[in-house]
Design brief:
Elements: E1 2-6, H1 10-21, E2 25-29, H2 35-40, E3 42-46, E4 55-57, E5 61-63, E6 76-79, H3 90-98, E7 102-105, H4 112-117, E8 125-129, E9 133-137, E10 148-152, E11 159-162, H5 165-177, E12 182-184, H6 188-208, H7 213-219, H8 221-239, H9 245-248, H10 252-265, H11 270-280, H12 282-298, H13 304-313
Length: 318
């Protein structure tokens, strides 16, 4: 099997390392400034085992322009980029070069599937949901034998994919052979959307209190609960389906409990991870909030809490 990863950041390195373990031929498409690093390979650490002895993932090929990707060479391509990365002329060019290959999108945006479907038949596209954590290591407060990417696959959380069996099965088999649990499911679009509908408000409110869980509990829980409630309303109307019961039950008390216990569950500093990762993809967080407001306003739904949160974030880091 031959796979092209679009993007070789922490997510791309995580999926690439597991695919390479299975014997898959793995190439990456990256911006020119990252090409030399990619050709040298990436050190990847399984976080539970520490940051001393990682494995080296070296792509079989490195490409810097979608137009240079060999037409018809790959069986699948996997988008390992933020939703904001879908803009630009590279996407239609890549789709043209893929031929009949499967395109897996790990991007979380509500409209991402439709953007891609403008250039490929829908049956050729597979949705994916990232259920693991990966980040540039070492983070502040950590030490590693050399810089790389650390990852953690929580128990009982396989990588999820939705698409035809013909399209998904080769990817599932390759990931499983590379020791990443993976499963084919249905209803992934709604599951991913409602998951982001909680995560994005949490992340955005955390950013306004310097990524401190204690301050989130002390200052923001009522606002956070109201923001999540408004996002849930937008998503239910947009997707024409009810949110999961667990999401409908979220309130200040449950959010406070989650903020206390979640940091105890991870083998790394959760606050620091959230700061490092979501500062890097801050444009995506802002895009999500703007999209919720736009969709909510079009549906005459309340969006004031979402809009106030978006305004509080400002433009973020450049």
């Amino acid at each position: 099997m031959r796979v092209l990863l679009v993007g070789a950041g922490s997510v791309g390195q995580l999926y690439g390392a597991h695919l390479a373990r299975s014997g898959t031929e793995v190439h990456v498409l990256v911006r020119p400034r990252y090409a030399e690093e990619a050709r040298g390979g990436f050190r990847v650490y399984e976080r539970r085992r520490g940051l001393e002895h990682g494995e080296l993932f070296t792509p079989d090929g490195v490409w810097t322009e979608a137009s240079d990707v060999p037409a018809g060479h790959f069986d699948a391509a996997i988008l390992c980029i933020p939703s904001t990365g879908l803009n630009g002329p590279w996407l239609p060019t890549l789709c043209e070069h893929l031929g009949s290959a499967t395109l897996v999108t790990l991007t979380p945006g509500l409209d991402d599937f439709q953007k891609i479907a403008a250039y490929l038949p829908e049956e050729q596209i597979v949705r994916g949901l990232i259920t693991s954590v990966s980040y540039p290591a070492p983070m502040p407060g950590e030490s590693a034998s050399e810089p790389g990417t650390a990852y953690w696959i929580p128990p009982l959380t396989p990588a999820l994919f939705e698409g035809s069996k013909e399209r998904t099965e080769p990817i599932l088999q390759a990931l499983r052979q590379g020791q990443m649990p993976a499963r084919r499911v249905s209803g992934l679009a709604a599951q991913a959307a409602f998951g982001s509908g909680v995560l994005m408000p949490v992340v955005a409110h955390l950013e306004t209190v310097d990524w401190e869980m204690a301050r989130l509990r002390a200052e923001k829980l009522p606002e956070l609960a109201r923001t999540i409630e408004q996002v849930r309303g937008v998503l239910e109307q947009t997707l024409n389906t009810r949110a999961p019961l667990t999401l409908r039950m979220i309130g200040p008390r449950s959010l406070g409990l989650i903020s206390r216990f979640a940091p105890r569950m991870t083998p790394f500093d959760l606050e620091m991870y959230l700061k490092v990762h979501f500062t890097k993809v801050g444009a995506q967080t802002r895009m999500f909030l703007e999209d919720y407001v736009s969709k909510g306003d079009a549906l005459n739904l309340p969006t004031d809490a979402i809009a106030e949160l978006r305004a509080a974030l400002g433009d973020g880091e450049s």
